[in-house]
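S.,

As promised, the iron/sulfur cluster run. Input:
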Amino acid sequence: MDDSVVRDVVAMGKFLGSLDGIGVLGVAPARAKAKAPVRLAVSADPAGVEVRARSADAARSPAASPPLALPSAPVRSDRDAAAAELSLTAIRDEIGDCKRCRLCEGRNKIVFGQGNPVADLMFVGEAPGADEDAQGLAFVGRAGQLLTDMVEKGMRIQRSDVFIANVIKCRPPGNRPPENDEITTCQPFLEAQIKAVRPRVIVALGATAGKFMAKTGDPIARFRGRFASWDDIPVMPTYHPAYLLRTPSAKKTVWEDLKLVMDVLGTPAD
Ligand code: SF4
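Predicted complex:
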């Protein structure tokens, strides 16, 4: 086993171990550096797109898993955090006490989303749950804690350095999936948030966010793990933390997806 494989196994163990709560110590979170993406073991396909083996196993057996094209994250010059914050404030003001769709009837608080206004990495989930509806903050329940672990212990980024939002801002009754017309009505706010933050990579969490961001009607199991694009920003669809709470065996799959995100950000795990 070569050194890169050992490092990969150790990193995955920290991620999975910390999420499972089995006492494996996580790595101290550190701010991800927004640099040009680092290319690992790349080659050029006939279209001139750099490709990278998906995992160490795939690298050893390329026939078993085709190489995956890695997109380039947009290179950002120094960002004006105050201007981005102002833009976000204007979007929140525009939402106001929104009654544009039926979800206003059952909500307690609008969940706008929160985080670094000039984040390199943005997470987009489906909709607020009960905890989020009560607090007015995105991803603060059990699934939110798991997302924090994914970001801080797995990706070694402070949660406060990413931006987190949902496709819709109000909790659907009984946590049902949002209807298409609700998504259509609310989506201008998310689109405006993305334009304000201008992240270098977006992670779409779960089927609703994944389908919306990747513009597909396929089941998420079919398109997760492969970059889509939103306004030239690479989008990685993966499973929702709430699904991981129900299906811990899927954590390894999500870690593979997040490692690709880290590659594109230029902060590879191995
Ligand atoms: S879900 Fe969006 S469009 Fe519907 S009421 Fe809430 S903020 Fe308004």
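Strands lie at 43-44, 50-52, 68-69, 114-115, 121-125, 163-166, 201-205, 228-230, 233-238. The two ends are 14 Å apart (CA to CA).

- D.
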